[in-house]
Design brief:
The protein has about 1500 residues and is an alpha+beta fold. The protein has 50 helices and 37 strands.
Length: about 1500
């Protein structure tokens, strides 16, 4: 398809609005007959005549004489026999009976055959024809002929067969006697026989009763055929059998006519005395007959719609005889749903009757559901309105019409004298026998020109525009008219009509057994204008005493064709356009020019060219112009007044009759399909059910006919455009102004055709406002130029042409799909798709994206039927048809796509790996050219099966770029809704790649929406190494793409799948920004650490809330930095993780996890400080800054962990130990703070939970947790860690030590206190003893030891306190010794002699320890080893080892303390041991080194 024929969906959508509007008008224009009759009350001329200068409206097509055998038989009877006649349109046969002989012959053509069927001696009194009930007779018997004689009823089989070409199914008709189906009539003479569409046989007897004839297969004693009286009671039935007819007296009103309304299931009966009876046959037409109404005096009823007055005519005063009812006919639901029956009187009047007690229909119409098939239950029979008789003296183009009036004398009654009448679907045929010498045939039919005025003035028209107006035509007839019947359309044409129009509710086609020929014939009631493109000319056959005559009704398009063939003057053509309207006449010209009208003869080229010229002649169809008489706004309102004081509306362009005709022609072509679904579900199932059979609503033949007509119309328009004919030629010479008119794409959606073009050419609108600053709100609009108006019309017509082309392609696609069985194609799709397909209308299929999507899915299923594993061919087999027939649905891109699918199918069944890869590569190359049109979900699954992951990655990325070529997904400056839509479009493509990762990880996603269930290629089972290889391949291919949005999507997916190692190994340069953005929002830049370090984003505020999902990104970031040996950055991220506060307590990291983060951060900081790559200045910065910070935070966290554990231990002890709180007993917690065990345990638990949530500062830990729960040991550790100085004498530290010692004494006595002192003091002692209050500790412990020893509470050794102090000072003797010296030197502090004696014992222990530690240092061994050495014999060289200065200090101290012992006011027995110890130490140091006595 060239670029000129490309379909622009925006133009198609605009034209679709126009067609929808026209279809709505078409529906609204179908008036109910009652409404038209009501409106005709106010019309002065309900009848009109056909123009004399025009070709006749009706004309005799052919005449035939009666068969010679019939005439011979009639003459042989001497004219005194019983003769009947009639027509069976169903089998294309006329019939006549003479006495006991029945003759059948072809009425539409004489074939020389006139078979005769004879019954026994009795004369035939009634004849009927019905369809045969299936299953009773052989299949060849399609119809049954019913013959009634005075003594018996006879069934005869009718067999029909077609000719050799198959075009005429009624070429041969033979009669088959059925002797077993003959029954006696029981003395009842039948007057008429009528049959229903379902095969029921009703007979009217001269006795006034209605009978039904039943027939079955029969078995045993059951009769095969029986007659049932439907209207007689029990008494009447008995009298009929007991009393012979000859003895019955009383007037009998025989039934002379019965007719059946097969749509409403009503039977009407008319008697000789003009009594009309109404019977119902059940809702389905197969129930028992039930009388619901009977009216005897129909002619005396008041006309309901005429206010109770009788209808009068100019000739009413001349009537002498009372008129009689000569015929009744049911009205189809297509004509009226409130009027049910029409009765024709002998004076030519028509009475319209209803069986419903409710009033007439004034309901709304305006949609396809405006009319429906809902029938009210019959309850009465009343006259609704009466139509006056047609006037005399009219002419149908023949001079004989006036002779009927001229041949009568003045004294003769001028009223009609109707002998025979026939009414069918809006057409009335009367036989006027008033002239004394010959009869005339009056034909009354609807005036089509009045229908055109109705459609043009819909809505605001006067009541008379909707009135029923009829044309009366007259034809001469030789003899008397006996019978009239419609010539039904041929079966092929009827089948097409039935398929197209059967689903339209207002067409009234019931789901009965009515033949398609009869059903399609009812479409004539819609009028010629809306059906002349598809329905043939209407024909009737008139059976008279002199022969048979076929009368044909010329449609308006036939009259126009004859006018063009006869080279009629322009004045006559203009008169035709004026009578029907420029739009209607132009549509007829278009039908002739495009040759889409249904015609028996081909339209000549001369006529087609003349019609095209008339369609394009501006003198006939007019030119586009503005509303109103001037270019400015029209100030006249619709009601005829002036809009004084109102805002003047802007003038809008009004297109010419050519555009109007194109709209009418297009909408009528598309009318039967436009708003109806293209698919139906058969079998009584819903669409979502898999058991329902989905099929095209239209038959292939009907779609073919419609497609051909639409294509013909489109080709005509295209040829005129290419030839620059009409307005196309005007527009084509305008240069740049119309550069986008013929082929442009600048259309916008409008609400109708006028608003569409107003929006299309709004840029050319020029407005003129007053410059005087006045307060007038009126705006004058300068007129469009003629060129602009022409461009508007051409643009609108071009849109409609594209719509026609698109519609034809849609019909072609539906035919192709229907030929391949829709159910088979959609069997693999899900319920949602099936439901959407069944609900899809033709309008949606043509004009909407949803329709295009569903069509693509159907084409995919069709192509799979050919290319699947059990395919029936290749892509080229079917793609050629699709590319030629529906290129807008099957584009070149689709062709390449299915070529690729074919390659994939071949690759799936190929065992050779090289061939498989080459085929996959070939498919990839095809798809790379059309990535935007490919259904990648299905295709990439096949590539996955082949392990060709290059296509799995590259194709979705190419499609994502094609869907968002402008990069809206990355543009933060545009509308958020547009950006979100672009992102969603891209992510749908990205999901295909991530699904492949899911599959490789064993987490396969669900089958995509609507994809057909098909056996996937057998995948080889992959080991872990192969899985990792393919995963890495996907990641590497994805990283190579420049699509940053895809990188983020890929990173998130890999993290969710647990592919962190692969992510860190193969991540691109944007991985760090992604992890930072995901872990810290917003991302900020921080200072450069050094000249060699890149800028590092800040981790946000310390302790800021972080979601657990963000934490995993930060954790990955830290791992990435460690992997890349960026230790400082890793330490910062780990610190951020350790300090983070969670938004949800349940997701908060534990303190142990935080400790691990900080430990790792310290490790990374140490690694950075030890990194040789860093300059010295940077290393110093790390050593003094980051590392110290991290270690300090780690120490504080250790305190927090300790406190938490202590609090949990306290809570556990309180919960497990009954009775009084242990802490209260031993005084560890003051009573004023916690009342009882429960409160204390709860408080401890709550505080422990608080410590588990986030990090606390050292101040918080001390003041809020450690002090309230008297955790003095931890308090001291925190004070020493914080280098707390406090006041000058460190009272806080002394007080805390005192509380700690008291707590220890309460818990375990001196032993516990000494243990605590050793443990805490050794950690707090810096080396000089300045921060340890040794004097306080020494005095406090010595006093406590003395008191407890004296009271016998605890056994306390002399060495316990002294050794504890030495351990607290890490073995430093001099600070401890100095403390004791200070205490002993101040008598005020220690006035007690017993206490001083205990202190001296401790000093002796200290001096001995000093001596041994000094010796151990000189010996290079431990103090224990030194004591072992000193216990043995020393060599002289050993004695020289001791330092003389230390010896002197120990000797001097021992001497001094011996003196102090002597001064104690205690008995010598108590001091002797201490004194002796000092003396022995002094002597051992002065004389020899025998330390064994120590």
């Amino acid at each position: 398809m060239s670029w000129e024929e490309e379909i622009v969906m925006r133009d198609v959508t605009n034209a679709g609005l126009v067609v929808s509007d026209r279809v709505g008008r078409e529906v609204a224009g179908q008036m109910d007959l009652e409404e038209a009759l009501e409106a005709s009350r106010y019309a002065s001329h309900p009848y009109s005549s056909h123009p004399r200068e025009w070709p006749p409206l009706i004309e005799v097509e052919d005449t035939w004489e009666l068969p010679p055998a019939l005439i011979e038989r009639y003459n042989a009877a001497g004219g005194e026999g019983t003769a009947l006649c009639g027509i069976f349109p169903e089998i294309r046969r006329a019939w006549a009976s003479v006495d006991n002989s029945l003759f059948l012959w072809r009425f539409d053509k004489w074939d020389g055959q006139c078979p005769e069927y004879n019954v026994e001696e009795q004369a035939i009194c009634a004849v009927g024809l019905t369809i045969s009930t299936p299953g009773i007779f052989v299949e060849a018997i399609q119809y049954l002929l019913i013959l009634a004689t005075p003594i018996e009823l006879i069934l005869v089989g009718v067999c029909c067969s077609g000719g050799g070409d198959g075009t005429d199914p009624f070429t041969e008709v033979s009669l088959q006697p059925l002797p077993e189906y003959t029954i006696p009539s029981d003395g009842v003479t039948m007057t008429c026989i009528t049959c229903t569409d379902k095969g029921r046989i009703f007979m009217a007897g001269r006795d006034g009763h209605i009978y039904e004839l039943h027939y079955t297969t029969g078995s045993g004693w059951h009769k095969r055929c029986r007659k049932v009286c439907l209207t007689a009671g029990v008494g009447s039935m008995i009298s009929r059998w007991v009393i012979p007819n000859v003895f019955k007296f009383g007037a009998v009103d025989p039934i002379v006519e019965i007719v059946v309304d097969n749509e409403r299931q009503i039977l009407y009966a008319r008697t000789e005395e003009m009594k009309i009876q109404v019977f119902v046959m059940g809702p389905n037409g197969d129930g028992p007959l039930k009388k619901v109404a009977e009216e005897r005096n129909m002619l005396n009823q008041k006309d309901a719609n005429y206010g109770g007055r009788q209808t009068a005519t100019p000739r009413a005063s001349n009537r002498l005889a009372k008129p009689s009812i000569i015929s009744i006919s049911p009205l189809s639901t297509l004509e009226s749903k409130w009027l049910h029956l029409v009765a024709i009187l002998s004076d030519g009047r028509r009475m319209y009757l209803s069986t419903s007690s409710s009033s007439g229909s004034n309901g709304t119409v305006g949609g396809l559901g405006g009319f429906n098939n809902h029938h009210h239950k019959p309850s009465c029979l009343k006259v609704v309105t009466t139509r006056p008789s047609p006037p005399l003296g009219v002419s149908g183009g023949l001079t004989f019409g006036m002779m009927s009036l001229a041949g009568r004398t003045q004294t003769e009654d001028l009223s009609l004298k109707v002998e025979t009448a026939y009414y069918s679907t809006g057409t009335l045929v009367l036989s006027d026998s008033a002239p004394p010498t010959f009869s005339s045939l009056l034909v009354v039919s609807r005036d089509s020109s009045s229908q055109s005025s109705q459609s043009g003035n819909l809505g605001a028209s006067a009541r008379t525009s909707r009135a029923l107006r009829e044309i009366v035509s007259s034809l001469p007839i030789e003899g008397r008219m006996l019978f009239v019947a419609d010539v039904l359309p041929l079966p092929d044409t009827a089948a097409t009509m039935l398929s197209l129009y059967s689903e339209l509710e207002f067409c009234g086609f019931p789901s009965s057994a009515e033949s398609c020929e009869k059903a399609s014939g009812k479409l004539w009631a819609r009028g010629d204008l809306s059906t002349q493109h598809i329905l043939p000319r209407r024909r009737i056959v008139v059976f008279s005493t002199m022969g048979m005559m076929e009368v044909v009704f010329n449609r308006p398009v036939d009259i126009l064709r004859r006018l063009l063939e006869l080279n009629s003057p322009r004045s006559i053509i203009e008169d035709f356009f004026n009578r029907f309207g420029a739009g209607e006449a132009a549509s007829m010209c278009l039908m002739l020019a495009a040759r889409i009208v249904h015609s028996e003869n081909l339209i000549s080229n001369v006529v087609a060219e003349k019609a095209a010229e008339a369609f394009e002649d501006p003198r006939i169809v007019g030119m586009p112009q503005l509303e109103g008489s001037s270019g400015l706004s029209n100030t006249r309102t619709a009601a005829g007044g002036f809009s004084m004081g109102q805002v003047v509306q802007e003038a809008e362009p009004v297109f010419s009759g050519a555009h109007e005709g194109l709209c009418l022609c297009s909408s009528r072509l598309l009318f039967p399909v436009w708003e109806l679904p293209v698919m139906v579900v058969k079998g009584g199932y819903v669409a979502a059910s898999e058991n329902g059979v989905i099929a095209c609503r239209l038959s292939v033949g009907a779609m073919q006919v419609l497609e051909n007509k639409i294509r013909s119309l489109e080709m005509f328009l295209r040829s005129r455009r290419n030839q620059r004919r009409g307005l196309y030629g005007c527009v084509a010479g305008l240069g740049d102004f119309t550069g986008s008119i013929l082929y442009g794409t600048g259309s916008e959606l409008g609400a109708s055709d006028r608003s569409m073009v107003r929006n299309l050419f709004g840029s050319y609108t020029r407005s003129m406002e007053s410059n005087d600053g006045g307060t007038s709100n009126k705006r004058q609009r300068l007129p469009y130029s003629p060129a602009e108006l022409a461009a508007m019309e051409v643009r609108a017509m071009e849109c409609i042409r594209q719509l026609l082309l698109r519609s034809a392609e849609a019909l072609f696609l539906l035919q192709l799909i229907s030929q391949h069985h829709v159910t088979r194609l959609v069997q693999g799709f899900d319920a949602n798709f099936r439901q959407a397909l069944v609900q899809l209308t033709f309008h949606q299929l043509v004009c909407t994206d949803e329709g295009d999507r569903l069509a693509t899915r159907l084409i995919s299923a069709l192509m799979e039927y050919y290319t699947g594993p059990d395919g029936r061919g290749t892509v080229d087999d079917i793609s050629g048809k699709l590319r030629e027939g529906c290129p807008s649905y099957f584009k070149e891109a689709d062709y390449k796509f299915f070529l690729a699918v074919e390659c994939l199918e071949r690759a799936a069944v190929t065992p050779d790996p090289d061939v498989k890869e080459n085929l996959a590569r070939e498919a990839f190359d095809f798809l790379s050219k059309v990535p935007e049109s490919a259904d990648l979900r299905t295709v990439c699954k096949r590539f996955e099966d082949l392990r060709f992951y290059e296509a799995v990655v590259c194709l979705p990325l190419q499609k994502a770029l094609a869907l968002d070529p402008g990069g809206d997904a990355l543009n933060e400056q545009i509308d958020p809704a547009i950006r979100e839509y672009a992102i969603a479009q891209r992510e749908q493509c990205y999901e295909i790649i991530t699904n492949a990762l899911h599959s490789l990880k064993g987490e396969g996603s669900q089958r995509e929406f609507g994809s057909p269930v098909r056996p996937a290629a057998v995948r080889s089972v992959l080991d872990q190494a192969s899985q990792r290889k393919y995963i890495c391949q996907i990641v590497q291919l994805g990283i190579q793409s420049p699509d940053r949005l895809f990188h983020e999507y890929l990173y998130r997916t890999m993290i969710d799948l647990g592919l962190e190692n692969e992510l860190l190994e193969y991540g691109g340069p944007d991985l760090v920004p992604f992890l930072l953005a995901a872990g810290c929002k917003p991302v900020q830049e921080v200072q450069v650490l050094s000249a060699m370090m890149p800028a590092t984003p800040s981790m946000g505020q310390p302790g800021a809330p972080i979601h657990s999902n963000q934490a995993k990104y930060l954790d990955l970031l830290a791992r990435y930095y460690v992997l890349k040996r960026q230790h400082v950055l890793a330490a910062h991220v780990l610190l951020r993780l350790a300090e983070r506060r969670s938004t949800n307590a349940s997701n908060a990291p534990s303190v142990e996890q935080r400790r691990q983060y900080l430990s790792n951060a310290v490790l990374q900081a140490k690694s950075a400080s030890n990194n040789d790559g860093l300059v010295d200045s940077s290393r110093g910065a790390f050593d003094s800054g980051l590392l110290d910070l991290l270690e300090g935070k780690l120490a504080v966290l250790q305190f927090q962990i300790k406190i938490k554990e202590e609090l949990e231990a306290i809570a556990t002890r309180l919960e497990t130990i009954p009775g009084t709180s242990e802490s209260v007993q031993n005084g560890s917690v003051p009573d004023s703070m916690f009342n009882g065990d429960a409160d204390l345990a709860n408080a401890a638990r709550e505080k422990a939970k608080e410590l588990s949530v986030d990090l606390k500062s050292i101040t918080q830990l001390y003041n809020e947790y450690a002090v309230p729960f008297e955790l003095w040991e931890i308090c001291l550790e925190m004070l020493y860690f914080a280098n707390y100085s406090g006041d000058a004498d460190s009272s806080i530290i002394r007080e805390t030590w005192a509380r700690l010692i008291d707590q220890a004494l309460l818990r375990g006595g001196i032993a516990e206190a000494c243990s605590v002192l050793k443990r805490v003091g050794s950690r707090a002692y810096p080396g000089d003893g300045a921060v340890l209050p040794l004097d306080t500790l020494c005095l406090y412990l010595e006093k406590a030891a003395l008191e407890r020893a004296d009271s016998g509470i605890e056994f306390v050794g002399d060495e316990d306190v002294a050794r504890a102090l030495l351990a607290a000072c890490k073995g430093a003797v001099e600070p401890v010794l100095n403390t004791y010296d200070q205490l002993l030197s101040n008598g005020a502090i220690i006035p007690s002699a017993n206490l001083r004696l205990r202190l001296l014992r401790s000093v002796l222990v200290i001096l001995r320890e000093w001596a041994m530690s000094v010796f151990a240092q000189r010996m290079g061994t431990s103090a224990t080893a030194a004591s072992l050495i000193l216990c043995g014999t020393f060599s002289p060289e050993h004695r020289t080892v001791l330092n003389q200065g230390v010896r002197d200090k120990i000797t001097s101290a021992a001497n001094r303390y011996m003196t102090e012992v002597r001064r104690l006011p205690l008995p010598q027995s108590r001091t002797e041991a201490v004194y002796g110890g000092f003396r022995e130490l002094e002597e051992s140091l002065i004389t020899s080194f025998s330390f064994d006595r120590f």
